[in-house]
Amino acid sequence: MQELEDRIRHDGIVKAGNVLKVDAFLNHQCDVELFDHMGAEWARLFEGVEINKILTIEASGIGMACIAAQHFGGVPVVFAKKAQSINLDGEQYATTIYSFTKQKEYPVIVGKRFLSEGDKVLIIDDFLANGCALEGLIKICEAAGAEVAGIGIAVEKGFQGGGDKLRERGFRVESLARIADMDCETGEITFA
């Protein structure tokens, strides 16, 4: 998606350790108009695919998933929580994921009443690097008996291999911006 790539080139900051900061428009300050265009693009890419739920993970995926849902007929958005709370009641699906950017493991939890056998789920997330967060969400879908109908990613760091592994396993992954290489010395970003 050219608009997203242009925005990454203009406002993205490459840091050491394969970190790309896009907090000016994607995962701290949110450009809602851009999110709307992203949602329209995912709807185009997944046209004809039966989807009755969108699943994401808190916190960065929530905004873009909610706006994208409007392009899928207003299907419900379910987000996996990263911590147990007194508001989480009833039975739950739970697993752990490793966060590349936070460099630690998190529990992820979804209430069983929000994800059911037979659901056709589109997973949406802001980044795909090694694929650990997505693996956790896929495990939750599998535990629920839900089908992962597709995976929509805003920014995929293709050089880290997570997307390729998921595609090899048969998952349909549609990334709106796929980065082939980043250089923290020059700040240069090359898209695939």
Explain what the structure shows.
This protein has helices at 2-11, 32-45, 60-69, 132-144, 162-168; strands at residues 13-15, 19-21, 53-57, 77-80, 92-99, 104-111, 120-128, 147-157, 173-182, 189-191. The chain contains five helices and ten strands. The strands form three sheets. A six-stranded mixed beta sheet has the order 4-3-7-8-9-10, sandwiched between helices. The radius of gyration is 16 Å and the shape is globular. α4 (132-144) links the parallel β7 (120-128) and β8. It has 192 residues and is of the alpha/beta class. 28% of the residues lie in helices and 33% in strands. The longest helix has 14 residues, at 32-45.
Briefly characterize the structure.
This protein is α/β, with parallel strands linked by helices and 192 residues long.
Question: Features of this protein?
Answer:
two-stranded antiparallel ribbon, 6-stranded mixed sheet, about 190 residues, 10 strands, alpha/beta, Rossmann fold, about 30% helix, globular
Given the helix and strand composition, which structural class is it? alpha/beta
| Helix count from the secondary structure assignment | 5
Q: How many discrete domains?
A: 1
How much helix, percentage-wise, in residues?
A: 25-40%
Distance between the termini: 11 Å
CATH topology: Rossmann fold
Global Rg: 16 Å
How do the SSEs run, as a string of H and E?
Answer: HEEHEHEEEEHEHEE
The level-1 CATH class: Alpha Beta
Oligomeric state of the chains in view = single chain
What's the mean pLDDT score?
A: 94
Which stretches are low in confidence, meaning pLDDT under 50 for 5 or more residues running? none
Largest sheet: 6 strands, mixed
